[in-house]
Amino acid sequence: MLSAFVYCPRLFFLQWVDALWAANADLAEGRRVHTRVDAGGGAAPLPDEGMLRAARSVSLASGNLGITATLDLVEADTGSAVPGAVIAVETKKGHPTGEGTAWDADAVQVCAQILLLREHGYPCDRGEIFYAATRQRVNVEPGPDLVEQTLTALADARAAAARLRPPPPLEASGKCPRCSLVGICLPDETNLLTRRADRSPRRLMAPDPDSRPMYVTEPGASVGLDHGRLKVSKRRERLCEVRLLDVSHLCLYGNVQVSAQALRTLFDRDIDVFHFSGGGWLLGLSTGLPNKNVQLRIRQTTTAARGDLTAPTSMIAGKIRNSRTLLRRNGGAPVAETVAQLAALAASAEQASDAAQLLGFEGTAARLYFQHLPLLLPHADELPGPAFTGLRNRRPPTDAVNCLLSFCYGLLAKEAMAVGFDPYIGLLHRPRFGRPALALDLAEEFRPLLADSCTIGLINNREIRPSDFIVRAGAVALTPDGRKSVIGAWERRLSTEIRHPRFGYTVSYRRAIELQTRILAAHLIGETDHYHPLVTR
Which pTM value belongs to this model? Predict the structure, then answer.
C-alpha cells in the first residue's frame, strides 16, 4: 500500500482505510505475472543460520518502521563482495520509465523492502524491479534521497490514514482512466462538485459489467451450486444454470430455497442474495461480512441522528422535478397547471426547515402526481381488477397498476442498497423494523425515472397482458409469467443510456444509481457540501 500512496494518496485511502476494491484487466494481468512468486518456495534462513540463495514470497515485519511486507523474491547478490548479501526483487506487470528507470512508487516500495531486510540482519545494498512487459530488471539503489523519500511517504501515509476523509482526487491526471477504483473515486466528478475544477468530467466510469442479476421466480424452486455454476431445479428437474461469473446478485421470489454451499460461495464472491415476497416486496438481504467503510457508516448514523436535511431536501426536490418531467412529457395540456404546481413544490422542498414540512411538500406533490397518472395510462382499463383511480395502495395492491408499481418499487429498493451504507438507517425515512430506510431515500429521485416509467411502458406497449395477473379476495398479484415480463422490462430500463445532466457524459441508469450513491457518500463524509440529485430535463 506504500506504493499506492506514492502513486495516488486517494487510492491508498480508499483501498487501505475504506477497504474498497474493484477488479479490472490490469489487476488480472498483475495477478497472472505474480503467479510464480506468489506460490512461494525456497528457504529463507536468517543471516546467522545459513546462506540464502533464493526465496519467493518472503514475509517480513518491522516494529521500528511500522510496516509489514511480502517480498516477491529475495536472492543472493552474487555481484557483491559482502558475504551473505541479498537483493530484493519486485515483479511488476508494466514497463519502466522512458529513461529505463524505475517509477517513483516502485522505487519507494523496493526501498522499504531493503530497509526491512537490513533490519532483519541481511546485508542489502540494492534491489531490482522486474518489469514483465519488457522482461527487464531495473536496478534500485537506496541512496539518502530515496531513503528519505520512503520514510517521508510512510509518515505521510499514516497521517492520511488517520484523517476522517480521503485526500482530494488528482486533477486531470493520466493515471485515472486505467485505475480500477475510478468508478468509486470519481475524480473529475468530485473535483467538479467541490469546485476544484471547472472543466466537464472525462468519461472515466467503467462500462456496465458483464454480470447481471439472476432472478428466480418459480415457486418451489431451489438454487444450488454445481462446478462454478448456479443451478435452479424443481423436483429434481434442472430448470436452468448460470455461471457464477455472470451473476451480479441473486433475487429470490416467494418460496425459493438456496443451499448453504451456494450461499458461502456467493458470499466469497461478494454476491448478495435478495429475498422478495411473491408480490415483489423486498423482505431481506443475505450478504457476507459488512463493508469495512466504518467512517461512512458513522457519518451516516450521526447525520441521521441530528436530523440533517441537506441531502433529504435535495432528494425530494429531485423526485418532484422528475415527476414533473414525466407528466410534462406524456400528459400534454391537461396537466399544465399541475406541472407548474410541482415546480413550485420542488423549490419549496429545497427550503424546508424540518422533516415534517419536507414530508408535507412531498405528500402534496405525490397526491397531485398520482391524480394525473391515469392520464398517462390509456390502456390500463384493459387490465383485470378495479380501475386505477390515482390512489396508491399496497400490501396487497387492489388494482393492476398499483400491483406493477409496488413490484417495480421493490426492484428499485434492491438496486439502491450499495456502497457500504447501513441500509436501515435513513436520512428521511424513519427507521422501522425490517425496512431499508436509506435504500428508500436513495430510490426517491429514481421512482419516476425507473419504476413509474417502466410501469407506463409495460401497460401502454401492451407488454403485460390481462392473463399475467391474478385477482383474488380483493387483491391483485402477478403470475410467474407476469413477473418475468416485468423483470425483463425493468432490466431493459436499467440498461437505457442517458446523458448525465450535470457531468455531460453518457451513462446507463444502472450506473447512474451507483453514481448517485457515491455522490451521497462523498457528501456524508464531508467531501462535498451538498447532495446533487439526478434530475432529467
Answer: 0.75
